[in-house]
Design a protein that fits this description.
The protein is α/β, with parallel strands linked by helices and 361 residues long. It is built from 15 helices and eleven strands.
Length: 361
């Protein structure tokens, strides 16, 4: 064979190989998605938005097969199952599925901003710049695409609560680091799954509970077992709902699809906030007007008691070098951002009451 013939044959083989690689990269992929939430949960709206955006932007090359309600991975299996490849993607609140490995991402300290978009990007920066957190995700073979921050409400109960003293001995459901906080305040904490809250209230196993927000709480029937709903709390002033990928699977995708996944996650984060403001406010009015729930603003006395309890938690957590590194990063961010945010924010209560009358609660 002539030199030209050998060259031509080699070039043809290389071209065929590149074509095959390109074709493989463009093969449609259906990825598995695991969550312990039901398909009607509020957070699942965001996950669905994310999956729809990915399918649209990849022109159907990347789609998802969702498994809701723990049918693929149970709550306790979420982190380890994802790491082992039992699912390609998972989305959940780490305070529920991984409270010990990521305690300050499931529940953050009380002085962090209430702005969920700001907190979302701050957390992403924290992960990218804190070696200890990077190591946690690496060890768990996880690629974090999105962590949306949002605050939780304080409690549901039928018992009258006016001061921190009224909380003593209250049989209260919460999860994660918030359990330690409330135990320090004298509550009797029961860490039970969300699906068991209503039966536990009906049987008197618990006196009070927190779950998440007016929409999620109303959908699972909180208003049917409790009529006092207290808003505002430092127990989970901001928490995260994470979209995580098995890192090996993520790295196997074409670069352009990886980028689309990241952009779709950011779009879902913004969309989640827009949905939340609309739905939370509507459901709160429904709880008040239709379900005759007594809406209460958490008394200052309770806020102060929560902050004192946090002081003890922060001191204990700070003894661990990893936890101290994470907390120092959060503190540095909050000292700068919350300072600006608070000074620059208008007095919205004054304006609201001028136009709509005295704010109740």
């Amino acid at each position: 064979m002539t030199t030209f013939g050998r060259f031509f044959k080699g070039a043809l083989i290389a071209a065929c190989a590149l074509t095959a690689i390109g074709a493989a990269a463009q093969q449609p992929r259906k990825l598995t998605y695991a969550t312990f939430y039901g398909s009607s949960e509020f957070y699942e709206m965001s996950a669905k938005y994310f999956m729809d955006e990915v399918a649209k932007r990849t022109q159907g090359k990347v789609t998802f097969q969702p498994y809701y309600g723990g049918t693929l991975l149970k709550t306790a299996e979420m982190s380890t199952g994802l790491a082992k490849g039992a699912a390609d993607m998972a989305a959940a609140v780490p305070a529920a599925f991984n409270p010990r490995e990521f305690p300050l991402t499931g529940v953050v300290m009380p002085f962090i901003s209430e702005n969920p978009i700001a907190v979302t990007y701050a957390f992403r920066d924290l992960v990218n710049t804190t070696p200890e957190l990077q190591e946690e995700y690496r060890r768990n073979n996880q690629k974090l695409l999105w962590a949306l921050g949002s605050g939780e409400n304080s409690l549901w109960t039928n018992k009258p609560i006016h001061t921190a003293a009224d909380l003593k001995g209250l049989k209260y459901r919460t999860v994660g680091l918030a359990a330690d906080l409330n135990q320090a305040m004298g509550l009797a904490v029961a860490q039970i799954p969300g699906g068991e809250i209503v039966p536990a209230m009906e049987r008197g196993v618990i006196d009070a509970f927190e779950y998440n927000n007016p929409t999620a709480d109303r959908r699972f029937g909180a208003q049917n077992v409790a009529k006092n709903y207290m808003l505002g709390s430092y127990h989970q002033a901001t928490e995260y709902f994470e979209i995580m990928f098995n890192k090996t699977k993520f790295n196997s995708l074409p670069k352009e699809h990886q980028a689309i996944l990241q952009y779709a996650a950011e779009a879902a984060s913004s969309a989640n906030y827009w949905y939340a403001m609309d739905l939370y406010s509507k459901d709160l009015q429904e709880l008040k007007d239709k379900d005759k729930v007594n809406i209460i603003r958490t008394p200052k006395d309770i806020f102060e008691a929560q902050i004192k309890a946090w002081d003890g938690l922060i001191e204990q957590l700070g003894k661990d070098p990893y936890m101290k590194k994470v907390m120092d990063s959060q503190k540095a961010w909050a000292k700068r951002v919350v300072y600006y945010e608070t000074l620059n924010a208008a007095d919205y209560v004054t304006a609201y009451e001028h136009h709509f009358g005295k704010m109740q609660g």
